[in-house]
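Progress note, sequence design subtask.
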C-alpha cells in the first residue's frame, strides 16, 4: 500500500481518538476527568480489532479491546444510535469505577467500525466513598457491576437503566454529567469516522486499517528478533508478599510470558482480571522494545500470555479487583521490565515507584449538605535510566494522569492542601539517581470524612539496577492535633474534622554503582573532569 496514504489515514484515525478524549475532558463534570484526564478513547475495526488510540491511560487502553469484544459478543443487532455501557471486570472491564461506552459507526448504512471511551468515575457505589475500599474481600463490596447493556438504543436513552445506575451511587448528578460527557465523546468519534470514510471510501478505509495492523505486527516481530533468544525469569511482590512470577521466553519473532507460579487470588482487593494483566504486558513490551510502535491489535499478535485462572494475574469471580487494576498492574510491569533487563542489559531503567498511591475521600460537604467523593492518584519517583537520573514526582507506567491542581481541588471539595512538595532523601542512589517521591498533605475541613488508601512499595523500596540502590519506600500518616500516626498502605479510616492525611510516595531506584565525587580543583569551578562544559543559565563556561 502507498506509504503516504497509510500514514495519512493512520494519523487521521489516531486524531479521531484524540478528539474524542478532548470532547470528554471538555464536557465532564468531575475533576478526576476534566482536570486529571483519567479517561481514554480508541477506534476499532468492524470486527472489533483495535486500530488507533489516543495517548491516554495505558491500563485503560490495553484492556479496552476486551470490553469491545465483550460488547460484540453480547449484541449482534447493532444499529445507528446504539451505545453499550459496561464495567464488569470479568467481561472485559478492569475495575468497577472504569465505565466503558462502546458504539458502532455507520456510513451509508454500512458498518465501518466501533468507537469506545473509558472513564474513571469517582464513585460507583460500594461500601466506601470512591468505590475503592481497601477492606473489600469480594467484588460485590466494591460497587455497581454493569454487564454489557445498551444505555442508548436507536438514539433513545433508556431512562430506567440510567435511573437504576444513578440510584446506586453517592453523587448521581456528577455521574450523570460524566456519563453524558462520554456520550458526547462517542458522538464525536462516530461523526469523524464517517467523515473519514466519505473522504477515502469505505473499502479503502477497511483495506488501510488491515495494512496498519499488518505493519504493526511486522514491526513488533522485528523488535522481538532483536532480543537474544532465551528464557528470562523475574519475580516481584506486593507489600503483603503477594507474588508476581514471570518466565519470559523469547522465540525468534514471538514471545511467551508465563505467569505460572504467581500467588493465588486472595481476599485483598488487588486481584487483576486477565484484561489488566494483558494491558500491563502490552505497555511494558512496547515501552521497552519500540516506544514508537503503533499501538493497535497487530502489535500484540506475536505475544502470548499464560496466566492461570484463579491467580492474582487472572482472577475469577467473586474476587475483589479494585486494586488489581491500580497496584498489581504496576507490579506486572516491574516483572516484565525486570526480565527484559536480563535479556537487554543497559537498556532498561531501574524500578519506578511501582504504585499509583490511590486516595479516595468522601463525606457530606458541610457547605452544601450534599455527599461528595474525591479520587486521585499521586506521582512518585521514576527509576534511574542507564544514561541519566529518573524524573521527580511523576505518574509512572500504567497511570498517565495529571495531578489534581490545588486550586481545583479546594474549589470542588471541603478539603485543603497543606503541603505539596518533592520528598527529599527518597532517591535511589547510584551513578544515576532515581527520581524523588512526593509528599501531599490534605486537611479535611469541618466534617468527618471516610478515607481509603490503596498503595504499595511501603515495606520494600523500588529496586535498583547494575549496582544502584533502591528508592525509599513510601509512608502514610494521619495527623491530628500535630501528632503523626502511621497508617497502613491499604486501609480505610475515618478522619475527624481538621485531620490531615499525609501521603509520602516512594522514590525511584538508582542505576549503576555510585562513583565517588572527585575533589574540587581550587583553580577551576569544574568538579567533574568527565564534563567539558558547565551550563549556567544562558552562558556556557568552557572547561580548561
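Output:
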Amino acid at each position: 500500500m502507498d506509504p503516504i496514504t497509510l500514514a495519512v489515514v493512520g494519523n487521521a484515525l489516531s486524531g479521531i481518538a484524540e478528539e474524542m478524549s478532548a470532547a470528554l475532558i471538555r464536557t465532564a463534570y468531575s475533576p478526576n476527568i476534566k482536570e486529571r484526564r483519567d479517561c481514554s478513547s480508541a477506534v476499532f475495526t468492524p470486527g472489533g480489532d483495535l486500530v488507533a488510540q489516543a495517548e491516554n491511560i495505558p491500563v485503560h487502553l490495553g484492556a479496552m479491546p476486551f470490553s469491545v469484544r465483550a460488547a460484540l459478543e453480547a449484541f449482534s443487532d447493532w444499529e445507528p444510535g446504539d451505545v453499550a455501557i459496561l464495567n464488569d471486570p470479568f467481561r472485559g472491564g478492569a475495575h468497577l469505577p472504569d465505565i466503558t461506552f462502546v458504539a458502532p459507526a455507520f456510513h451509508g448504512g454500512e458498518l465501518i467500525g466501533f468507537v469506545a471511551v473509558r472513564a474513571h468515575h469517582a464513585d460507583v457505589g460500594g461500601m466506601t466513598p470512591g468505590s475503592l475500599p481497601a477492606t473489600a474481600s469480594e467484588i460485590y463490596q466494591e460497587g455497581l457491576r454493569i454487564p454489557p447493556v445498551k444505555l442508548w438504543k436507536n438514539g433513545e436513552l433508556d431512562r430506567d437503566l440510567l435511573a437504576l445506575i444513578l440510584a446506586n451511587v453517592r453523587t448521581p448528578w456528577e455521574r450523570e454529567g460524566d456519563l453524558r460527557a462520554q456520550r458526547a465523546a462517542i458522538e464525536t468519534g462516530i461523526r469523524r469516522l464517517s467523515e473519514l470514510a466519505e473522504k477515502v471510501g469505505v473499502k479503502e478505509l477497511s483495506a488501510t486499517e488491515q495494512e496498519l495492523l499488518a505493519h504493526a505486527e511486522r514491526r513488533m516481530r522485528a523488535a522481538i528478533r532483536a532480543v537474544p533468544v532465551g528464557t528470562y525469569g523475574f519475580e516481584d511482590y506486593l507489600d503483603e508478599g503477594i507474588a508476581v512470577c514471570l518466565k519470559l521466553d523469547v522465540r525468534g519473532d514471538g514471545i511467551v510470558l508465563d505467569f505460572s507460579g504467581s500467588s493465588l487470588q486472595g481476599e485483598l482487593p488487588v486481584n487483576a482480571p486477565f484484561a489488566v494483566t494483558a494491558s500491563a504486558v502490552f505497555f511494558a513490551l512496547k515501552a521497552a522494545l519500540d516506544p514508537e510502535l503503533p499501538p493497535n491489535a497487530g502489535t500484540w499478535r506475536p505475544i502470548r500470555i499464560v496466566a492461570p485462572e484463579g491467580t492474582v494475574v487472572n482472577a475469577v469471580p467473586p474476587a475483589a479487583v479494585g486494586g488489581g487494576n491500580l497496584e498489581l498492574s504496576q507490579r506486572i510491569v516491574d516483572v516484565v521490565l525486570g526480565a527484559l533487563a536480563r535479556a537487554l542489559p543497559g537498556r532498561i531503567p531501574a524500578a519506578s515507584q511501582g504504585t499509583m498511591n490511590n486516595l479516595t475521600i468522601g463525606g457530606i460537604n458541610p457547605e452544601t449538605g450534599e455527599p461528595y467523593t474525591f479520587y486521585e492518584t499521586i506521582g512518585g519517583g521514576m527509576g534511574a535510566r542507564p544514561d541519566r537520573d529518573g524524573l521527580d514526582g511523576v505518574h509512572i507506567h500504567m497511570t498517565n494522569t495529571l495531578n489534581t491542581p490545588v486550586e481545583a481541588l479546594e474549589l470542588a471539595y471541603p478539603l485543603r492542601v497543606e503541603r505539596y512538595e518533592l520528598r527529599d532523601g527518597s532517591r535511589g542512589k547510584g551513578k544515576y539517581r532515581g527520581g524523588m517521591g512526593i509528599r501531599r498533605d490534605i486537611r479535611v475541613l469541618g466534617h468527618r470524612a471516610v478515607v481509603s488508601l490503596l498503595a504499595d512499595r511501603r515495606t520494600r523500596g523500588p529496586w535498583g539496577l547494575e549496582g544502584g540502590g533502591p528508592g525509599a519506600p513510601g509512608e502514610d500518616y494521619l495527623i491530628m492535633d500535630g501528632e503523626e500516626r502511621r497508617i497502613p498502605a491499604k486501609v480505610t479510616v475515618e478522619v475527624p474534622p481538621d485531620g490531615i492525611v499525609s501521603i509520602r510516595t516512594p522514590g525511584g531506584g538508582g542505576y549503576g554503582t555510585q562513583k565517588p565525587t572527585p575533589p574540587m580543583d581550587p583553580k577551576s569551578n569544574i568538579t567533574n573532569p568527565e564534563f567539558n562544559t558547565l551550563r549556567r543559565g544562558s552562558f556556557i563556561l568552557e572547561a580548561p
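Residues 349-515 form one domain. Work on this subtask will continue into the next period as scheduled.
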